[in-house]
Amino acid sequence: SAIQGVESLAVYENDTDNPTITIDGEVANIPAHSFTVVILGGEPTTIANTIWNNKPVGITSNGNTTVDILDSQGFSHLIGFERPTPVTIYIDLELDTNEQFPGNGAALIKAAIIEYAKENFSVGKDIIYSRLYTPINSILGHAINSFTLGESPSPSGTANIPISFNEIGSFESVNITISTV
Question: Per residue in 161-171, pLDDT tens?
Answer without folding.
Answer: 999 999 999 99
